[in-house]
Amino acid sequence: MARAVGPHGSTGEYPEFVPPKQAARILHVHPNTLCKWRISGGGPAFVKVGRRVRYRTAEISAWADEHTFLNTAQYGRPKPKGDANGP
Fold first, then answer.
1. Cα 59 to Cα 34: distance, rounded to the nearest angstrom
2. How confident is the model at residue 74 (pLDDT cuts 50, 70, 90)?
3. Rounded to 5 degrees, what are φ and ψ at 9?
4. Is residue 34 classed exposed, middle or buried when 0-12, 13-18 and 19+ CB atoms within 10 A define those classes?
5. Residues 4/61, Cβ–Cβ less than 8 Å
6. Which one of 1, 10, 58, 66 is most buried, by most CB atoms within 10 A?
7. 10 Å Cβ neighbour count for 62?
8. Over residues 5-34, mean pLDDT
9. Residue 8: pLDDT above 50?
10. What is the DSSP letter of 1?
């Protein structure tokens, strides 16, 4: 199991792979939003296990890091490699 920051900022154990509903809870979005992101390629990377979709908790965290901004002027601008907070 991977260590991650749990709900409400507490440190807890999350399984390495989570189903879309749990991934949506982690990101505070509707599960249908994740479905749309899978189709458009805009969300976190996912894994297909047979017919099931799973998300690695590390991928969810990495995707969130890539979409972290200090202000609205940074939004929409490509981030330089290696800088999680933009220019």
1. 13
2. confident
3. 80, 0
4. buried
5. yes
6. 58
7. 14
8. 80
9. no
10. -
DSSP per-residue letters across 18-86: E-HHHHHHHHTS-HHHHHHHHHHT-S---EEETTEEEEEHHHHHHHHHHT--SSTTTTTSPPPTT-TT-
Q: Fill in the DSSP letter of residue 15.
A: -
Residue 75 burial (10 A CB sphere; 0-12, 13-18, 19+): exposed
Tell whether the model's pLDDT for residue 28 goes beyond 50. Answer: yes
Tokens of 42: 């805009």
Tokens of 80: 């330089």
- Give the Cα separation of 38 and 1 in Å (integer): 24
* DSSP conformation class of 7: G
Average pLDDT, integer, range 3-20:
64
